[in-house]
Each structure stands twice: as C-alpha cells, then as structure tokens.
Amino acid sequence: MIEVVSAGPGCSICQKALKLVKQAAEEFPQIETRELNVVEQFERLQELNIFSAGAILINGKAGFGSPPSLAKLRERVYELLKPEENLQN
Questions:
Q1: How far apart are CA 61 and CA 74, in angstroms?
Q2: What is the pLDDT of residue 87?
Q3: Model pLDDT, residue 89
Q4: What is the domain count for the chain?
Q5: How far apart are CA 6 and CA 15, in angstroms?
Q6: Mind listing the pLDDT tens digit for each residue in 1-10?
Q7: Residue 55, Cβ density class (10 Å: 0-12 exposed, 13-18 middle, ≥19 buried)
Q8: Do residues 34 and 72 lie in contact, with contact meaning Cβ atoms separated by under 8 Å?
Q9: Is residue 31 within 8 Å of residue 78, measured between CB atoms?
Q10: What DSSP state is assigned to residue 9?
Q11: Which of 20, 47, 49, 81 is most deeply buried (CB count within 10 A of its CB)?
C-alpha cells in the first residue's frame, strides 16, 4: 500500500506526489494506492511524525518526506516486492 499525504487539489506538491504514485502503480499493479487527507488523518500522521503534505507512506510507514524521483520510488517498491516474489517461487 502506498499512501500520499494530501492537503487537497490546490497543493502542487501533493499533486506531484499523487501523479508519481499513480505512475508507479501502473508498473506494479499488485500495489494499492490511497490519498490521505492531512486534516482527516491528522492524528495518525502526528503519531507517525509526518508533518508535510506530499509525503509518501509505504506499508503504513514513512517512505519519503517529499516526492522522490520516479526512479527512487520504483526502486523502493521493487525492494519491498522482491521478498514477496521470492516466497512465491
């Protein structure tokens, strides 16, 4: 699961992060994506010490504090999926 912390459609950083995550999801169809509204998820984000819109959570944990390059996001997702693929073989 990849989640993007979003302040809404007016946030350009959030939109960049959402676009990036959608691109990665096209390459890895087994992953789910979700947008987290910073106001609605404030308590959860506070517990995770995430205070910036555009942050990306991977499997419920902080992955990136701001949008990374697509290559870095792909690399992280691949690393996370690799053990799962080895278990299936």
A1: 17
A2: 46
A3: 47
A4: 1
A5: 8
A6: 899 999 988 9
A7: buried
A8: no
A9: no
A10: T
A11: 20
- What are the beta bridge partners of residue 34? 3
Report yes or no: 17 and 56 within 8 Å, Cβ to Cβ. yes
Tokens 């999926």 belong to residue? 81
CA distances from 47 to 8, 20, 36, 51 (A): 21, 25, 14, 10
Q: pTM for this one?
A: 0.81
Q: How high is the pLDDT of residue 79?
A: 86
CATH of the domain at 79: 3.40.30.10
Q: Is 88 or 12 the better-scoring residue by pLDDT?
A: 12
| β-sheet bridge partners, residue 6 | 37
User: HEC profile for 26-88?
Assistant: HHCCCCCEEEEECCCCHHHHHHCCCCCCCCEEECCEEEECCCCCHHHHHHHHHHHHHHHHHHH
67: containing domain: 2-88
